[in-house]
Amino acid sequence: MLKKSVVEHTLEAALETGADFAELYVEQTKRNHIAMVNGQVETALGGLDYGAGIRLFCGNRVIYAFVNDTSEENLVRTAREMASTVKGTHLLRLPDWKTRQWQNINPIFVLPDDVEKRKKADYLAAASAAAFAYDPAITQTRTGFLDVTKNVLVANSEGVWAEERRVRSRFTVEAVASSATEKQSGHLGPGGSVGFELFDQINVEDTAREAARIAMTMLGAKPCPAGKMPVVIDNGFGGVIFHEACGHGLEATAVARNASVFAGKLGQQIASPLVTAIDDGTIPNGWGSANMDDEGTPTRRNVLIENGILKTYLVDRMNGRKMGAAVTGSARRENYRFAPTSRMTNTFLAPGDSTPESIIADTPYGLYAKQMGGGSVDPATGAFNFAVLEAYIIRNGQICEPVRGATLIGKGAEVLMQIDKVGNNLKRAQGMCGSISGSIPTDVGQPMIRVKEMTVGGRG
User: Fold this and answer.
1) Residues 204 and 288 in one domain
2) Number of domains composing the chain
3) C-alpha angle with apex 349: 300 to 372, nearest 5 degrees?
4) Which residues sit opposite 66 in a β-bridge?
5) Nearest Cα residue to 193 out of 117, 119, 112
6) How many Å apart are CA 107 and CA 410, to the nearest integer?
7) 175 shares a domain with 237
8) Does residue 355 belong to any structural domain of this protein?
9) What is the pLDDT of residue 332?
10) What's residue 460's pLDDT?
11) Measuring CA to CA, which residue among 208, 207, 242 is closest to residue 375?
12) DSSP secondary structure code for residue 224 in this structure
């Protein structure tokens, strides 16, 4: 993406005043998005973004700048301006480049750029038609297809030279069901680090019908009762509970500042012995997968919690310095405008031995949360508040009537200890995660779990 001489001159300029680490991140991203409303194209957008970020360390101090002009003159000038704020004692010389190579974990078979927009639109129109055909009460559909091709270069003063092409594709569908007095919606968004072959892996019409089913089910649901009760959380997007309420608290971004409820607890039991939690950036074609992180470190499988014991945190380079911890291939950023920090990739609870049927049958009364929605969390305390998009009451070991307006309230550390059943039906789902380094694609997942007691908010 840049000549090595340009990279070298930029990093040498960055190190002139004694910084003990310098890094150059270069990125070119091509993005296309088609969106339909009721089977008609609403938007068809495409764009190219290009730029670079320069980062310096001096002890635990960080200086970061980004530019769109990646000419040698501008990069060197920017690096020197950054270096002028540093008065360090290290006069580093660049070592020989150590080019990082790996077997690509995300093979791409059909580049979305090579596919005509009409073919993409045909899939979206078919999904819309399937949702409308599900029931006359479906009054609106929204369908979309996003594809992103990102080329990345990371070079630093330790001699790392790492390049990667990242391709991601995602299909989204929303169905809205209406009655005389209300509206309810269902939404799904499968995707991965794949090309247009995504549409060989999913059936858009079945996905649209499932979104319509959720909308129709919630349209006729009564308000959820409130109180403390057992809660069974289904697989797939149910994993957002762990991601938000616990996962962010295991990122060094919070731990290094002692702003996490899990800080200082390595080796301690922080969860039920049934709980093993993993963040794995190496899952082939996973939505959050990559060959390397945004510091050029190879991604890896990190076991965060094993049988309830906290084993490790997710650690980036700067926070690793502060903590005295090794990096874990977890540094991520939305784009070159953001400095990287520790973030999740594909995070999930490992499957257990219980079947979903046995978990339901062993629950005399409680809430069955089939589809989770959004919410909020405080990483320092783990306190969270999450909406449930699709929920049912469990009575006498059976799933009974649907209820709407359910909210799960609690603290992540307490929920981890309260898990008393873990199913064998692991499933992952795709989402976007926002934090101080921007919005990034992450997988969440889990098998069905049961929390023996949670606070459920509702109006029933």
Assistant:
1) no
2) 2
3) 120
4) 53
5) 112
6) 40
7) no
8) yes
9) 98
10) 77
11) 242
12) P
3-state secondary structure of 72: helix
Can you tell me the distance from the alpha carbon of 14 to that of 24, in angstroms, rounded to the nearest whole number? 10
| Structural tokens at position 130 | 């399937």
Answer for the pair 318, 255: CB distance below 8 angstroms, yes or no.
no
Are the beta carbons of 252 and 210 closer than 8 angstroms?
no
> What is the bridge-based pairing of β-strands 98-99 and 160-178?
parallel
Q: Is the dihedral of CA 339, 21, 86, 52 positive or negative?
A: negative
Of 133, 124, 211, nearest in space to 174 by CA: 211
Res 158: pLDDT:
97
Looking from the CA of 28 toward its CB, the CA atoms found within 13 Å total 9
- The CA distance from 421 to 452, in Å, is 8
pLDDT value at position 378? 84
Task: Please state, in angstroms and rounded to a whole number, the distance separating the CA atoms of residues 118 and 101.
Answer: 37
Residue ending a domain, choose from 221, 239, 265: 221
Q: Per the structure block, which two tokens stand in for 243?
A: 């991601």
Q: Is the domain of 246 the same as that of 391? A: yes
E-state strands within 249-364 = 277-280, 301-306, 309-310, 331-332, 341-342, 346-349
CA angle 268, 342, 381 (to 5 degrees): 50
Both 341 and 398 in one domain: the answer is: yes
246 and 294 within one domain: yes
Does residue 406 share a domain with residue 278? yes
Per-residue DSSP letter, 291: S
Give phi and psi for 97, each to the nearest 5. -70, 135
In a domain? residue 17? no
pTM: 0.96
Let me know if residue 309 belongs to a domain. Answer: yes
CA distance 259 to 7: 36
Q: Helix (H, G, I), strand (E, B), or coil: what is residue 422?
A: strand
Domain that includes residue 132, residue range = 112-147+167-221
| C-beta separation of 230 from 450 below 8 A | yes
CATH of the domain at 210: 3.30.2290.10
> What pLDDT shows up at residue 220?
87
Q: Average pLDDT for consecutive 10-residue bins of the chain (460 residues)? A: 96 96 98 98 96 97 98 98 91 91 95 96 98 98 98 98 98 97 96 98 98 96 96 94 92 96 97 98 98 98 98 98 98 98 98 98 98 82 91 98 96 95 98 96 97 93
